[in-house]
Specification:
alpha/beta, binds ligand 3US, two-stranded antiparallel ribbon, elongated, 12 helices, single chain
C-alpha cells in the first residue's frame, strides 16, 4: 500500500513535530497550507538563522499544491530546526524559549488551535458576540486589549464564567502567564474545550512558549461545588451581555461574598456607574463595588472597528464603611441637638 503522503514540521524547541496529511485541507476561513507556511514563518521570526536555511523566497513563492516542492521545503526547515535544537541544547537556550508568545504570534496560535479543534463551527450554533465563530477576527483583539489594560500579572488567578470552548482562558494563560480557570456547562463546547486544550499544549510546546496553568471545567458556575474557584479568583470575566435579569441577579449574589480587591470584568454593568448608597440601595452589590466603564476596539484594524465598552468592577467595602460612619456622625449630631419645635413651646 502506498505510504500515505504527509508533511512533517520539526520544532527547534519543542518535542513533538507537527504532521499535516496530504492533500492539505482548505475550507472556508481555514487553509492548512497557509497555516503551515505561517507557522514556519513564525519560527523563523524567533530563529533568524533558520530563516537563512529556509531561504525566505521559498516561503513567498512556493507552489502550495506541489507535494514534492512542499516536502522539500519542509525537509530543509526540519534539518535546520534539528541543527538548532542540537546546538540549543549546548549553549543556554535563546531568550525567546520559555517566554510568553508575542500578541501576534498568540493570535496565530489561537486561530490555529481553534481551526484544528472545531472542524464544523456550526455545531456550536452560538452566534452571540464573542462566539467562537467570530473569535479569531474580533474578540481576540478585544480580550488582548483588556488583558493589557488590566495589567494582569503571573500572581493573578483568572476565571472565565461560562468559558465556552475555552478560547479566552487559553489566551489569558498564554498572554499573562497566570493560573486560569474556565467553567462551561454545555456538553458540546465543553467537549470541544478538551480538543482546544490538546492542540494548545502541542502548539505552545512546538513554538517553545510559556503559559500559566489552566483548567477548563465542565459544570454550572451557579453550582456550589464551583464556588471555590470563584472565591479564589482575583480576576473574573463574565460576558453577561445576553444573561437575563434573573441570572445577573444570581451572579451579584455570588459576587457579594468575594474579597476586597477582586476585579470583575463584564460586558453588562453590575451596578450603575453613578451608584449612590442610600438606605434603599444599601443591600445592592453596588454598595461594595467601584465601577468604571472602559472601551477597547474589537477587531484588528482599529480605525474601522466599533469601540466596544466593557465594565470593570473592583470589590471595595470601604465605600460602605464610610457610609455607615457618616450615618453614625449624622445620628450623633441629630441626637445632640434639641429639636427647634420643642424649645418654642
Ligand atoms: C438557574 C439558571 O438560570 N440556570 C441557567 C443558566 C446557568 C448559568 N451557569 C452557567 N454555567 C456555566 N456555563 C454557562 C452558564 N451560563 C452560560 N454558560 C456558557 O457560557 C458560554 C458563552 N460565554 C462565552 C464563551 C467564551 N468566553 C468569553 O467570551 N469570555 C469573555 C468574558 C468577558 C469578556 C469581556 C472582557 C468583554 C467582558 C469577553 C469575553 C458567555 C457569552 C457567557 C456558553 O457556552 C454557555 O453554555
Amino acid at each position: 500500500k502506498k505510504k500515505d503522503k504527509s508533511l512533517k514540521l520539526n520544532s527547534p524547541v519543542g518535542l513533538t513535530p507537527v504532521i499535516y496529511r496530504w492533500p492539505l485541507q482548505s475550507q472556508e476561513g481555514y487553509d492548512e497550507a497557509h497555516e503551515l507556511i505561517e507557522s514556519m514563518r513564525w519560527v523563523c521570526h524567533d530563529f533568524p538563522d533558520l530563516r537563512v536555511a529556509v531561504e525566505n523566497y521559498i516561503l513567498d513563492r512556493i507552489d502550495l499544491s506541489d507535494y514534492d516542492r512542499m516536502s522539500l521545503m519542509c525537509d530543509r526547515f526540519n534539518r535546520a530546526a534539528d541543527n538548532i535544537r542540537r546546538l540549543g541544547s549546548g549553549i543556554e537556550p535563546p531568550k525567546c524559549i520559555g517566554a510568553p508568545p508575542s500578541r501576534d504570534l498568540l493570535k496565530h496560535i489561537m486561530v490555529q488551535v481553534y481551526n484544528r479543534s472545531i472542524p464544523d463551527p456550526d455545531k456550536l450554533n452560538s452566534y452571540q458576540p464573542f462566539s467562537p465563530q467570530v473569535y479569531g477576527e474580533s474578540s481576540y483583539d478585544l480580550v488582548a486589549d483588556v488583558i493589557s489594560e488590566l495589567k494582569i500579572t503571573e500572581d493573578d488567578i483568572f476565571l472565565d464564567l461560562g468559558s465556552g470552548v475555552g478560547n479566552v482562558v487559553l489566551q489569558v494563560a498564554a498572554a499573562a502567564n497566570c493560573t486560569c480557570y474556565g467553567i462551561e456547562k454545555n456538553e458540546i463546547p465543553a467537549d470541544y474545550a478538551k480538543e482546544m486544550e490538546e492542540e494548545f499544549l502541542q502548539w505552545m510546546d512546538w513554538y517553545g512558549k510559556s503559559f500559566g496553568d489552566f483548567e477548563l471545567l465542565h459544570g454550572d458556575f451557579l453550582d456550589a461545588d464551583n464556588y471555590s474557584y470563584i472565591k479564589k479568583s482575583t480576576i473574573i470575566f463574565v460576558n453577561n451581555f445576553a444573561f437575563g435579569p434573573r441570572l445577573n441577579h444570581k451572579l451579584k449574589e455570588i459576587f457579594s461574598g468575594l474579597s476586597d480587591g477582586t476585579r470583575i470584568v463584564t460586558s453588562l454593568e453590575l451596578a450603575p456607574l453613578n451608584f449612590h448608597i442610600t438606605p434603599r440601595t444599601l443591600s445592592d452589590l453596588g454598595s461594595i463595588l467601584r465601577v468604571s466603564k472602559l472601551s477597547a476596539t474589537e477587531g484588528n484594524v482599529s480605525w474601522t472597528d466599533k469601540p466596544v465598552s466593557y465594565y470593570l468592577h473592583v470589590i471595595d467595602r470601604t465605600k460602605l464603611e464610610k457610609y455607615f460612619q457618616q450615618q453614625k456622625r449624622k445620628e450623633e449630631r441629630e441626637s445632640s441637638m434639641v429639636p427647634e419645635g420643642r424649645a418654642k413651646r
